[in-house]
Amino acid sequence: MIDLISWLASLPIGQALRRISWLVPWLQVVHILANGVILGAVVMISMRVWGISRSQATIAMARRFHPWIWGALAALTVSGVLLIFYTPRRALLDLAFQAKMWTMVVAVAATVALLFALKPERKAAADKAGPHRLASLLATLTLALWVGVTLAGRGRWFAAMMTRMIQ
After folding, report:
1. CA–CA separation, 32 vs 72, rounded Å?
2. What does DSSP assign to residue 18?
3. Please, are residues 8 and 84 in contact by the beta-carbon 8 Å criterion?
4. Ramachandran category for residue 119: left, alpha or beta (phi over 0 → left; psi -120 to 50 → alpha)
């Protein structure tokens, strides 16, 4: 791992990121906003699946937010990779970062499964059979995972806050 970190730190992109003072804060803003877009879209879809929101059909809601989720995921990934190049040692050796990465992998898989479960032909079959329990379970799981990604992204801050609350 140390060899990988040394190699990443020596790449020109990492050196450029460390030289341009305004770029890293900008990348952090993009990263946080992209996470917020995904979380907001998942909340809206989940609320519709659970029956809390009835302003739109479930399929229409999923179609509406689908491009936002994938566009924000692309921005989240690009900005996150660039931030790793900025401080590879801090990122790759941090347990909160590792937890965030694993949680994100599972969150993306759950998001794909949720959107797949909401496809029109699956939804029509589920409507005939009654409430779609799988979609409801996937909506809950997806939302919990994206909240976990968000909290793990603030891992050090969150751990410090929890420690203060316990003491």
Report:
1. 10
2. H
3. yes
4. beta
Long-range contacts for 111-119 (Cβ within 8 Å, ≥24 apart)?
111/38, 111/42, 111/69, 111/142, 111/146, 113/138, 113/142, 114/45, 114/49, 114/138, 114/139, 114/142, 115/62, 115/66, 115/69, 118/45, 118/49, 118/58, 118/59, 118/62, 119/59
Residue 131, phi then psi, degrees to nearest 5: -55, 140
- pLDDT per residue as tens digits for the range 48-79: 888 888 778 888 888 889 999 999 999 999 99
Tokens of 96: 């909160």
Tell me the per-residue pLDDT of 100-150, one tens digit each, with 9 for 90 and over: 899 999 999 999 999 888 876 555 555 554 447 888 999 999 999 999 888
Token code pair at residue 106:
């599972």
The number of residues in the chain equals: 167
Q: What is the DSSP letter of 154?
A: T
Q: Which two tokens stand for residue 130?
A: 């009654």
